Amino acid sequence: MKLNRVDLNLLPVLSEILRECSVTKAASNLGKTQPAVSLALQKLRKNLNDELLVRVGREMKLTPRGEELAVEVEELMLFAHRVLEPKEFEPKSLTGQFTIGGIDYLLFYLTPLITRIVKQAAPDLSLRFVTIAREWERDLEVGNIDLALVPLGGIQTQSLKAKVLYEDRVKCLASSMNDAIKTKIALNTFLQSKQVIFDRGDGLFESINKVYRLHPELTEGAIFTPHIYIAIMIVAYSNYLSLVPENMALTVEGRVPVKIVNPPMSIEPIKMAMVWSPTYDKDAAHGWMRSVISNGVVVTKKKRPEDFEYADF
């Protein structure tokens, strides 16, 4: 008898009939009517070519084939329960490597707490942080990276899953030694200032790029770099200005001689997101890592990386 010709929904009925030796009790245990279980027993007798349960005097007893099946079916049902019941996830059991790709500043901002949480809960799991390439979406799809931390507006592949972590305002960064720039900056002053333009060339920071498209004069004689740290260091020791995400500016404020001022025009905030392949949407370990990052953002928003206390993990 071929398996694909058997109604596997009959297995629970068979299990209860063999255990109880009673159609009535089997029906009660299954929450079914007695006629429904009797009909199922008829189908089982036909499929197995055996009566399975017969009356002997005033009692119902299993046939020799039924007694033989009772043990096998019980083991089969136990195995089915083990396979179908969700396993309890334990981060401590994680091994191997989890790769997180992201914009350099976003990794700088989030990795202190992510690392702390992960290594305390899953000490045998290796973490790998990489700066994403322009083909980062393809890297997600083929598994070169497990999760990406990027601005939401830069996502081109519609099939990827994403969750917004927070919104980052755009600020103007100037050297703290630049006396021409006070707490506020006029539009004319900004437009006449030399610029360091943070541009990866992949549209991830579209709200910043839009400013330079609207004011192309800012690009004349500008310094371009795909690395935000280079932009910050140039600004710190010159009279150049740069538009940068606020949280990046906050992480370097006090470490290098820069000051943060509001830009003289309205700029849309940058929506920072974590992005992953739908292949891992229901994966327990991946879901745990996403929750670690989400929780890490909540805590990191209240503290800067240098505020974290030393931890032995």
Description:
By secondary structure, the chain is of the alpha/beta class. Helix content is 41%, strand content 19%. The chain has helices at 10-20, 23-30, 34-48, 64-84, 104-121, 136-142, 187-192, 206-214, 228-236, 246-252, 284-300; strands spanning 53-56, 59-62, 97-102, 126-131, 147-151, 161-168, 170-175, 196-198, 223-225, 242-245, 258-261, 270-276. The strands form four sheets. It has a five-stranded mixed β-sheet with strand order 4-3-5-12-6. The protein has a three-stranded antiparallel β-sheet with strand order 10-7-11. Strands 1-2 form a two-stranded antiparallel ribbon. A hairpin with a 2-residue loop joins strand 1 (53-56) and strand 2 (59-62). Helix 1 (10-20) crosses helix 2 (23-30) and helix 1 packs across helix 3 (34-48). The longest helix has 21 residues, at 64-84. The model has no long low-confidence stretch (mean pLDDT 85).
Short description:
With 313 residues, the protein is of the alpha/beta class. Helices cover 41% and strands 19% of the residues. A hairpin with a 2-residue loop joins strand 1 (53-56) and strand 2 (59-62).
Structural class by sheet pairing and helices: alpha/beta
H/I helix tally: 11
Q: What kind of sheet is the major sheet?
A: 5 strands, mixed
For the CA atoms, what is the radius of gyration?
Answer: 32 Å
Number of E-type strands:
12
Q: Within the CATH hierarchy, at the fold level, what is the topology of the largest domain? A: D-Maltodextrin-Binding Protein, domain 2
The spatial strand order of the largest sheet comes to 4-3-5-12-6
Total number of distinct structural domains = 3
CATH class type of the largest domain: Alpha Beta
**Succession of helices and strands:** HHHEEHEHEHEEEHEHEHEHEEH
Per CATH, the architecture of the largest domain is 3-Layer(aba) Sandwich
Quick one: overall form? rod-shaped
In oligomeric terms, what are we looking at? single chain
